[in-house]
Amino acid sequence: MSDQDQILKQGVSKIERDHSRFRQIVRGRIKKDLRKYITNSEMMGKKGKDLVSIPVPQIELPRFRFGRNMGGVGSGEGEVGDPVGGQPQEGEGQGEAGDQPGEHALEVELTLDELAKILGEELELPNIAPKGQKTIVTQKERYKTISRQGPESLRHFKRTYVRALRRQISMGLYNPDDPRIIPVKEDKRFKSWQITHVPESNAVIFYMMDVSGSMGDEQKELVRTTAFWIDTWLRSQYKRLESRYITHDAAAREVDQETFYRTRESGGTAISSAYRLCTDIIDDQFPAGNWNIYAFHFSDGDNLLSDNEQCFKILSDEMLPKLNLFCYGQVRSLYGSGEFKRKLDDALQMENLVTADIKSKDEIYDAIKIFLGKGK
Questions:
Q1: Which residue among 184, 185, 268, 283 sits deepest, i.e. has the most Cβ atoms within 10 Å of its Cβ?
Q2: Contact predicate 108/43, CB 8 Å
Q3: Best-predicted range by mean pLDDT (116-120, 206-210, 288-292)
Q4: Which residues, in sequence order, are bridge partners of residue 353?
Q5: pLDDT tens digits for 40-82?
Q6: Confidence band, pLDDT 50/70/90 cuts, at residue 134
Q7: Which among 368, 373, 294, 309 is positioned nearest to 340, based on CA atoms?
Q8: CB under 8 Å to 349, separation ≥6 — which residues?
């Protein structure tokens, strides 16, 4: 390796170390203010296919200031507290309004896997142990073999060097006083891949939401934000995850994601209709022995009194035995009675049934920890 290549390699290595250190600093800032980021619905609008853009406070570099010196090196003009390098710039400190722009947040892109890892660390969420058979088989390409052909980008340096050295020694071309190893085409070895078949666990999430007249835009925004973080965590736990959406008022229907958050009806509320539809879809498409099944239901707690017993019966006899986890989140509404959670808590106490109040954005953080904290 030439001196120039060595210098370039060292420079790249330093850049990678600096980048890694910067990422750690950013992770620390996000973890520290995670409750704030969880309530920030704007962040979800900046999500790409695999990335999410998060605004973090501008990270300032430290700078030296004059202290109390006894003379010698570092002594000279300047008062205690003055920044090194001159007077403060315009726009800093107190005084009249200036014409300098203020500080701006730094947009940092994180992968959804990184975001899920931060969420799990901060909320101390246990990793999920999937149940059921691993029936889905996927293909994985892994670089496990060596080939004589391939692109230069996959050239195996060590193998190529050893082959060239052996050839030169066997042909009497190697000079210990001038140890130059020059590979020829026949010496080159390249990393190659093998396709392996890996069984993976299946998972499906059912999101159910009351869309009757008492559920307004504010309540739906609470649901959307909560569902984003639930989705982010569960997708980090399963390679394959399907999402299904059910809306209901007095009747239930399966819809797509966009319709789920935009639909608003004016009818009454019969929660059992959503539970019945969810159960029918599970029986038809997602056998409990092969799938890890999650159900999240969001409502303002308003329901026909005559329907409550039917809800509890479907849950206890049909849904809960098939689910990894059932979570009920009750959002606050000016028009909802808020009674369903209390009645559900009194009627059923099962290991895979969890309920939480989500009265405002500030309570989303706590609700996610309650929902996902069991590692089901």
A1: 268
A2: no
A3: 206-210
A4: 326
A5: 655 554 555 555 665 555 445 455 555 555 555 555 566 665 6
A6: very low
A7: 309
A8: none
In the chain, what percentage of residues exceed pLDDT 90?
29
Counts of helices then strands in the chain (DSSP H, E): 10, 10
pTM, entire model:
0.63
Q: How far apart are CA 116 and CA 282, in angstroms?
A: 27
| DSSP, residue by residue, 103-166 | --PEEEEEEHHHHHHHHHHHHTPPPP---S---EEEEEEEEEEEES---GGGB-HHHHHHHHHH
* DSSP conformation class of 356: E
Alpha-carbon distances of 188 from 83, 156, 157, 161, rounded to whole Å: 57, 8, 8, 8
Distance of CA 82 to the CA centre of its chain: 43
Alpha-carbon gap, residue 149 to 144, rounded angstroms: 15
Six-digit token pair at 88? 């403060």
Q: Give the residue from 317, 343, 315 showing the smallest Cα distance to 330.
A: 343
Q: Are strands 325-331 and 353-358 parallel, antiparallel or unpaired?
A: parallel
103: confidence class by pLDDT, cuts 50, 70, 90: very low
Contact (CB, 8 A) for 280 and 248 = no
Structural domains of the chain sorted by starting position, each given as residue range(s) with its CATH number in brackets: 1-66+103-123 (no CATH), 139-198 (no CATH), 201-372 (3.40.50.410)
Mean pLDDT of 314-330: 95
Contacts of residue 198, Cβ cutoff 8 Å, sequence gap at least 6:
137, 138, 139, 140
